[in-house]
Amino acid sequence: MSGEEETVIEESMEVGLYSKRGITLVRGRGSRVWDDSGREYIDCVGGHGVASVGHCNPRVAAAITRQVNTLITCPESFSNDVRTEYLARLRNVTPDGVDRFFLCNSGTEAVEAAIKFARLATGRSRIVATRRGFHGRTMGALAATWGKGHRRGVEHLVGPCDHVSFEDPRELEEALDESTAALIIEVVQGEGGVHPAEREFVAEAARLCRERGVLFIADEIQTGFGRTGSWFAVDHYDVVPDMVCMAKAMAGGVPMGAVGLGDRVENLPAMSHGSTFGGNPLACAAALATLEEMQEGDLPGRSRVAGHRFMEGLGDLDSPLVREVRGMGLMVGVQMRVRVTPILRRLQERGVLALPAGATVLRFLPPLVIEDGDLDLVVDALGEALGEMVQT
Predict the structure, then answer these.
(1) Do 288 and 82 meet the contact criterion of CB atoms below 8 Å apart?
(2) Which residues pair with 177 in a beta bridge?
(3) Same domain for 316 and 337?
(4) CA 375 to CA 115: how far, in whole Å?
(5) pLDDT value for 152
(6) Could you tell me which of 25, 61, 62 has the C-alpha nearest to residue 46?
(7) Residue 133: what pLDDT?
(8) CA–CA separation, 279 and 264 (whole Å)
(9) What are residue 33's DSSP bridge partners?
(10) Which of 160, 166, 255, 284 has the smallest number of CB atoms closer than 10 Å to its CB?
């Protein structure tokens, strides 16, 4: 059965929310994946930034195997040895002062929890987010997400939530008032086009939040765990948020999310929130192995160096279709002068999988273990694809 035939069968049993790529992936190792016909691809999708330590990382796979034969589930009303060890290691890499954690199962769950915690801690209800920001698709997280396409048909969201410019501190100053519980931002916007914030904007946001009793929530779901060349993107900006939302790369491919809390997040009543699967030993074992792999291999440092080299290579492409290359670490966007769907298709034909970030931005989120040679092949493939488009 071909990949296209399997796509048709799979789509017939789904609800139609995803646009399929026409191939069936069956195996992965490191920064490479293979389809059912044996064709090999350089994976710059990485499960939407999940596979940071590589597909089927041996340390993570071994940890999962051990734990699945030991204890899979344990609710947080009971302590657990693996969870305790993981939390102790996690607090060593999160921003200073962020040293308490609510464990959950995904990024959107982390955002939902952070919004709830902000309202409980401050007694206020209003949330402020930024234009182009993306924070998830459940109703509270979606209220903070910018973009009519994401919100169409479900406009009666959990509010109030207002959106301000990602670049204008004056607009932010007007928005953060006595009714505001929290400001939530991605300091490097992902789905919105891979836009790093200006240092002045982030510094002013942190200052205004402190001054006005507003909690500063950093959405690090895509940027966390080394993606931008530091453990967390806020590390580049010398600010400490009150809450950090994390997920994606956290557990090497096993679903996991968390909210890290600082000392200004208080007054959270017992039993005011919870998660059946949050902090389960299987996910914690995978996350612990992932964290050890990142630390021993200095994957944040690897991301910083490799990302700089990769962006230089992309910037050297001599194509009239390229408007700008931007990003941080191995979170890279290429702003095009045309729509990116045909480029993604041409890249796939050349054995490279990549992502869009809006209609005209190519996004690359490869595993942080990717070799320089593979990144060079990605640059070459994009150059060939763009050259073919210019000629046609």
Answers:
(1) yes
(2) none
(3) yes
(4) 38
(5) 61
(6) 25
(7) 80
(8) 23
(9) 28, 41
(10) 160
